[in-house]
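User: I'll paste a sequence; please echo it back and then give the predicted structure.

Assistant: Echoing your sequence first, then the prediction.
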Amino acid sequence: MRILVTGASGFVGGAFLRRHAARDDLTLWGTGRRATDLPGYVRCDLSRPFDLPFRPDVVIHAAARSSPWGTRAQYQAQNIDATAHVIAFCKRHGLPRLIYLSSSSVFYREAHQLGLREDSPIGPDFVNRYAQTKYAGEQLVRAYPGEHVVVRPRAVFGVGDTVLFPRILEAARRGALPRFVGQDRPVIGDLVQIDTLSDYLLRIATMPRPAQSYNLTNAEPVDLQALLLDVLARLDLPPPTRRVRIGTALRAATVAEWLWRGLRLRDEPPITRFGVGVFAYSKTFDPARMLADLGPPSVSLTEGIEAFVAWQRAQWMQ
């Protein structure tokens, strides 16, 4: 089987190619904006019409602007236009199966949401531009005339992570990480370990008849604040001592976002409503369809945390 992975210079796409590189039953290609040493890799800007010298059986479209902050034009180019150009490439190259990496954030509201399923309501309002444009990409993929599958990973973490834990750990190292208070219950959330996600993606690529959408998690909801404190302790980082009420944090984030947009500042605000919401609202997913079709996670949450902590320690020692 011949598989093309977009976003191969990023966390998810690169991890997929490295995990399955040794398989002799696969031919793997990748494309992305940055240079890498991955075999079969071609640099390419998907925000413009493109072509590649490949005729894949499957395209895994993992390229995206995954930051929770950016301009409307950046999200349009990297999440919507890029998806349209990938679909155009697929139409010219034999209608391969198209697997689109959307985001679990398309479901999110500023409220607790438990047991979300693949057919749970989406929109019309979204928590940020990232979620809005990922869902716009879903709608484009739904109209693709070839086989297509939408996957929505929840909070991807693991070795090579550049988005989820590193930001939190850097804030902890600076003593800038608050401890949110004011909830009437622990905030519970799902995560998905990167190797588990990579194995699920390969299963979807190779199985005879996948469903048209999957929510992908490790099927192990956890108390997010307790998990964070455990990771900080393992890395010998100080626990947060500054206590901030959720309502106060959300108001501060609203002001920060308003200022950053009004002043057109390029960097990300120090606090966003989406970032606060991660520790303010429980988000869990019903794994029934995933487990029935794809099987149990290949790497447990405990194994994934241990591997991540060991990798993070090694990074800091270099």
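Residues 72-92 form the longest helix (21 residues). The CA atoms of residues 72 and 89 lie 24 Å apart.
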